[in-house]
Amino acid sequence: MNGEYSLDTTEGMAASGDPPTNNAVDDYDAEEALERQREEENKIKIKLKSFEGGVYECGLTAAKMSVMVANMLDALQETDLTKIATREPIPLQNDAVTNKALEKIVEWVDHHWDDPPIDPDFDDEKERRNEELSHWDKQFIDIADQGELFDIIAAANFMDIKGLVEVGAKHICNKIKGKSCTEVREMLKIHNDFTPEEEAAIHKENEWIYAKD
Amino acid sequence: MLKTGRKDRAPVVQWERRVGLRSDTNMKQSMDRLGDDLCQHLLSYLSLEDRFRCECVSKQWQRLIYTTVTEITHEDLDSNELTITEKTLDSILKKCQNVKTLVVNRKHNPWLDSITKRCTHLNAIHMTLNDSVSVESIERFFRHFGRQLSAVNVLVLTENDDLMSTTSAGLKRCPNISRLIVNECENGINVLRLLCGDNGNEVSFARLQKIHIYFDTENVNHFETFAKSYRNTVKAIDVFVDDFNTDDKCIDILMTGLSRMSALVDLKVTFKPDFSVFLNHLKQIGVNCLNLKSVSLVIDIDSNENLSELMKTINENLKQLKRLQISGNFPEEFALTSESLHRLKRLTHLTINTPKNDDLFLVGIDRHLPALQSLHIRYAKITKPALNSLSRLPKLQTIIMCDITGYTSKTVVQRLNDMCPKLRSITIKQRNPKWELINSKLDQLLAYLQALPDGDGGEGEVYNQCMIQSDDLIKVRLVLATLRIKPLGQSVATTQITEQIQVIITAFMTNPMINTSANTSEHNSVQTDPLIIGFQFKANNHTGKATELSEALVGLVSSLATPLDQISVLAKNGN
């Protein structure tokens, strides 16, 4: 169950001689307080404006799941949060942020804003990467219109919402799984820019992968 | 942040060219619209096999698809019966230039030279030493990678002294190791000696963070030095304490040493000697190691008094814990409530046995352990109050339940799915009660392993059926048995184990129940995966045995390949 420690060589040594500073009880209270503050802040609604001009309301904590939005709000240096709520809508200047995409994105952050944060004491990244999508996320991302799906992924990427980009990535990779090159191209409407000779050459290099078929 | 297509410099030309070729609506539907950075990130979730299959999708994909392969494991290579030759591995490594971590097993030893040649960024390796690997290859490997290695895992399955001394010498060339795992064996590589030098006064790996240690009387002096020298760096220790070759005095030194490791975050102890010695020291560790966040104990508890003592010690002295795992045998009948751990308010991950046929532990768990994200229990009766308590845990994401009673597995999965929107996965592992013969044979095998003399015992986990929540379907995986056998000692009779496993497989194949796929009767929408038999070994002490047994089992399983395939077909038809 324990996370593995980072294998990165660049990781520095633990500072030797540092006295242990951790006080479990204080930490717990501080974390509790932070959580309550997040809850309170999410009751404040801010407005986000899509590329097409649609305006959508979103809880403040949820909206801050977008690193881009969080940075923009930080840049305002506004301490009075209620003023943020009455501000002009925040414009999202990328053509992928359509009305439909932004509506879905608001739905996603609204479900996920209170997810437990990543625990810095453990490196679980590998497990998270390999984890299957949850029931809720699967239903969320199962979108019939592929154009809309790409809009959401590109918009989430533009807004820098890591968790949502990951949901999109896992969904697409699940769909690719086990399919042949031709099937993948067909499904994702990808233009084949290889000549038949080039394609045959790659196929030959990777022959071992087809051996079992 | 990753950039989208339009902002990328490189692909713009391509993008515009394509827009010229196709209408805007078509472009919108096409993945070609995504820029290199995003596309590369999306494809990073593909399996190694899928990457090779999809290389020829487009030039963009060819350019990006291998760049994010940073780890290759034997599981990637062994999946789906792919035949991988030395040449294949070489071509894989040639394409995956950014590999940092390699986990290979003994089958891949001949490729060590290829790894040395190809993997310029390698910093973590999991290798197996057996007689198929040459001293020269090992020498070359460590000479080449020495300083860049930060994690090394060596499984020794040989008695060749040259090989072991070359590896020891090789490891000394790796001053930047932060994670070192070497299985101990007689006359093998002595980890503590490696850490502290032969004189016991060196710090060989100044960056060491994670280490596995096999502890006995012979190691005592080195351990003391180790605990002193590494107390401010080592964050994770996995220590195995046997009950032969250890006495109270050396356990005292061990535990006192551990309690001085002030940087310790993650402690795993497999403790075979008398339990009472352990408790006092655990308290000491709790008081001294203030950074400790995770404790994992493999320990047999023989009485209810000892169990409640252990819980009391943990509850009172390890309040800061985020993760707790207690495995091992518990008394036949025991009482345990979640209240006994109620001070562990930050606990996010818990693995524990809960009382059989009782919902005692689960009811009220939401009040006592409110931060739980992951819960893995064995036994317990699942009742309505139990489910209600579970559903009130606001952060619960993962549940694993084994051998539960009360509601049927299907009901449990469905109810929890409805009640806990945040839940990411539910796994339920059950014995199929209808397979009496198979179950009794499996029990016999387990009993045999457990009854082996001190230090030679095995342990196992045996399930017939494993349920995994997925989509709206409940996926049922048919698992004959998963056995973990460790450690293997001199008195293990390899032939006896393989014979018993053969009996089990035969009983399974001739079982009339298999036709009706008894496990599926509960469900309508069930996917049944092919039969899976898993064996896992952890070798210890007498390595020859582990090799012998694993080879015998590989032989057995492969000789049965055809009948097993038929079973998987049968199971599918039964659906």
Automatic annotation (TrEMBL), chain A:
<dbReference type="InterPro" id="IPR016073">
    <property type="entry name" value="Skp1_comp_POZ"/>
</dbReference>
<comment type="similarity">
    <text>Belongs to the SKP1 family.</text>
</comment>
<dbReference type="GO" id="GO:0016567">
    <property type="term" value="P:protein ubiquitination"/>
</dbReference>
<feature type="region of interest" description="Disordered">
    <location>
        <begin position="1"/>
        <end position="26"/>
    </location>
</feature>
<dbReference type="InterPro" id="IPR001232">
    <property type="entry name" value="SKP1-like"/>
</dbReference>
<keyword id="KW-0833">Ubl conjugation pathway</keyword>
<dbReference type="InterPro" id="IPR011333">
    <property type="entry name" value="SKP1/BTB/POZ_sf"/>
</dbReference>
<dbReference type="InterPro" id="IPR016897">
    <property type="entry name" value="SKP1"/>
</dbReference>
<dbReference type="Pfam" id="PF01466">
    <property type="entry name" value="Skp1"/>
</dbReference>
<feature type="domain" description="SKP1 component dimerisation">
    <location>
        <begin position="162"/>
        <end position="209"/>
    </location>
</feature>
<dbReference type="Pfam" id="PF03931">
    <property type="entry name" value="Skp1_POZ"/>
</dbReference>
<dbReference type="InterPro" id="IPR016072">
    <property type="entry name" value="Skp1_comp_dimer"/>
</dbReference>
<dbReference type="GO" id="GO:0006511">
    <property type="term" value="P:ubiquitin-dependent protein catabolic process"/>
</dbReference>
<protein>
    <recommendedName>
        <fullName>Skp1-related protein</fullName>
    </recommendedName>
</protein>
<dbReference type="InterPro" id="IPR036296">
    <property type="entry name" value="SKP1-like_dim_sf"/>
</dbReference>
<comment type="pathway">
    <text>Protein modification; protein ubiquitination.</text>
</comment>
<feature type="domain" description="SKP1 component POZ">
    <location>
        <begin position="45"/>
        <end position="112"/>
    </location>
</feature>
From TrEMBL, chain B:
<dbReference type="InterPro" id="IPR032675">
    <property type="entry name" value="LRR_dom_sf"/>
</dbReference>
<feature type="domain" description="F-box">
    <location>
        <begin position="36"/>
        <end position="67"/>
    </location>
</feature>
<dbReference type="InterPro" id="IPR036047">
    <property type="entry name" value="F-box-like_dom_sf"/>
</dbReference>
<dbReference type="InterPro" id="IPR001810">
    <property type="entry name" value="F-box_dom"/>
</dbReference>
<dbReference type="Pfam" id="PF12937">
    <property type="entry name" value="F-box-like"/>
</dbReference>
<protein>
    <recommendedName>
        <fullName>F-box domain-containing protein</fullName>
    </recommendedName>
</protein>
